[in-house]
Design goal:
Blueprint (H helix, E strand, L loop, with lengths): L24 E10 L2 E11 L4 E5 L6 H8 L5 E7 L2 E2 L5 H6 L2 E4 L11 H8 L7 H7 L1 H5 L10 H13 L5 E5 L7 H14 L5 E4 L3 H7 E8 L2 E7 H6 L1 H8 L11
Parallel strand pairs: 3-8, 3-9, 6-7, 7-8
Antiparallel strand pairs: 1-2, 1-4, 4-5, 9-10
Helix pairs in contact: 3-6, 6-7
The structure holds adenosine-5'-diphosphate (ADP) and magnesium ion (MG).
Length: about 260
């Protein structure tokens, strides 16, 4: 079924990808509250069928809450279609079964279990993609018997990403995978994400603008729980005034990827 046959999906913001390349996930007027406080307000965005779509914004603007609302982890209203099918009324487990993979903000691993056990517990499909994971994360194969709690932050992030990549997901929601990592490790995670994005489209919340520049075609900026800008990631990051105004950061020339 084509997403174009679903009324309303054509009203999604343009993401600049090729015509006929329907977005995999279309979010329209998503709103959500936590403890009576509205944290997501009329968020509309679409995730391209290929590659990385980035969500940017200062701390506390509602990026994580948007992902949690998409997954039905917090009460929400609005319309969400995954590959043309509504998922906004489904409970979380059904959304996960439809192929929405989640890599949460604080790289949740089972600290007391080995790497191999962490990965085995994540396997949902009949034929988990172990070869893909072994190819992307050779370090994890070497450390398969090590307890995940004794891994470095970067290695734990790899476990967290690997858990999502083992299953044949339709889209991945990945929340700040490079947060708190050393620059060299940020690079390693970025390489893994770049590779992963060849396989599955990714909605990536990311504060590291170098990583955004390298990976994302489209950037969606959130402020105060709502979308305040959607467009080419490159164009946004090249626009010093806009980046400063929307993200409160000054993009140094040195940050431009080679
Ligand atoms: N469990 C919670 N209880 C109460 N307020 C929360 C909770 N989680 C998030 N919030 C509030 O929701 C808003 C958005 O938070 P969040 O989505 O985590 O932002 P971001 O990911 O952009 O940093 C913030 O004001 C935050 O304080
Ligand atoms: Mg967050």
């Amino acid at each position: 079924m084509s997403a174009h046959s679903v009324p309303g999906t054509t009203a999604a913001p343009s993401t600049g990808h090729a015509p006929g390349d329907d977005p995999v996930l279309v979010v329209e007027q998503l709103s959500a509250s936590i403890a009576g406080q509205q944290v997501v307000e009329d968020v509309s965005l679409s995730v391209a069928a290929h590659g990385v779509t980035a969500v940017l914004g200062r701390n506390g603007v509602g990026k994580t809450s948007t992902l949690r609302a998409l997954l039905g982890l917090i009460d929400r209203t609005g319309r969400v279609t995954l590959a043309g099918q509504r998922i906004d009324r489904l409970p979380t487990h059904k959304i996960v079964q439809r192929g929405v993979g989640y890599v949460p903000e604080d790289r949740e691993v089972f600290a007391g279990l080995t790497v191999a056990e962490n990965l085995r517990l994540a396997e949902r499909d009949e034929h988990p993609r172990r070869e893909l994971v072994e190819r992307l994360f050779p370090d994890l194969t070497a450390r398969r018997d090590q307890r995940a709690g004794t891994l470095s932050g970067g290695q734990q992030q790899m476990v967290s990403l690997a858990r999502a990549l083992l299953n044949d997901n339709t889209v991945l929601l990945i929340d700040e995978p490079t947060k708190g990592l050393a620059p060299k490790v940020v690079d390693e995670v970025a390489v893994a994400l770049e590779e992963a994005a060849r396989d599955v489209p990714i909605l990536l919340v990311e504060q590291n603008l170098e990583v955004v520049r390298r990976l994302a075609r489209t950037a969606v900026v959130i402020e105060g729980g709502t979308v305040v800008h959607t467009g080419s990631a490159q164009a946004l990051l090249d626009d010093e005034e806009l980046t400063q105004r929307l993200l409160g950061v000054h993009v140094e020339a040195a940050e431009v990827a080679p």
